[in-house]
Amino acid sequence: MGCLEILLMDGTSIKQTPETIFLSNLKVFSFCGSSIEDSTELALLPFSGNSCLSDLYLTNCNIYKLPDNFSSLHSLRSLCLSRNNIETLPESIEKLHCLLFLDLKHCRRLNSLPVLPPNIQYVDAHGCVSLEKVAKPVTVPLVTERMHTTFIFTDCFKLNRAEQEAIVAQAQLKSQLLARTSLQHNHKGLVLDPLVAVCFPGSDIPSWFCHQSMGSSIETNLLPHWCNNKFIGASLGVVVTFKDHEGRHANRLSVRCKCRFQNRNGQSISFSFCLGGWNDFCLGVWNESCGSSCHEPRKLGSDHVFISFNNCNVPVFQWNEESNDGNRCRPTSASFEFYLTDGTERKLERCKVTRCGMSLLYAPDENDRGFQGTRVTDTVERTSSEAFVPIRGRSHSQVGERRNGRMRDEMPL
Questions:
Q1: Where are the chain's structural domains?
Q2: Could you tell me the pTM of the whole model?
Q3: C-alpha distances in angstroms, 41 versus 53, 71, 102, 242?
Q4: Mind listing the UniProt keywords for this protein, alphabetically (predicted)?
């Protein structure tokens, strides 16, 4: 048994494997749909210092509390705890530095989230109806941040405005670090997926978005000198109204944007990218062993806000470099059209974008606060307090910021 790498025990009532069985090489363990009334005392060997376990699926097995030695799973990459009775996660989860995917869907008693591991890429807390508190910051980003992240809080109706602001502030900071890494690599590689994407219940676009519009599209003129070497991309936000969004494609949803930049000569460049969404099959093929509850269509009947920070500088820079006259051919206007798909090319007609917002994003100067002796947590707390502050006395179509004696075209990260 020492060579066993995959163990599926779905639907069983076993609490503990015999001590004579050694599972030191186990990589995938699934214990979904357990018939144990209370799995709090679950003492299965994979929790006991297994150094190889990478995928752990514990969907719908009546867990009220994770074992104390849970943090010993140092190689864990995917963790599925959906449809359990846990009220919180152990603070030691922060030590699982390899953890990338965390599935908490329908944990209806979960009321708080501690600080999560720094390398986390995908957190899905859909249907956590008791969730009220999220750690500030929800993750502590690395200075050399390179991980793109998605936070899903659909149908988490107890998250108040302050918690939502903190989540967005965390996304802003993480995007800032990702943006700086992008600049340090001289814009190499075309990555149009969101640097960070978040979604939660709501019907308002944060007021710090410089350009806002009712409906699903925005057109705007660009200020002079907007496309400098600090330009990173765009912060995008939409409000989506879900009406009877249920069906075989409801397991996958992608909020997308078609972007078009045009210069004064009438020439243009267009490309599209994703703002966020979900894919309930993203945690791996072994999720299928957890039964139909893992793939149950999401039932959303209220408005939700989607916010993302996207790196779209590469195609714009390439277009300028390929032109004979970079200044003359530099874009002077831009348009953004938002729509939803089922994760393929098929548009979803029942889901409508009712509001949208956009701000161009710029990397901070190296001497800006946040990179010179400032703790990451300080920056998150400061950014959180500013995240939804209204822009007074300024037009939503033209917003500048004076930094270091010059005007910035848009809001820096």
A1: 200-413
A2: 0.82
A3: 20, 16, 22, 40
A4: Leucine-rich repeat, Repeat
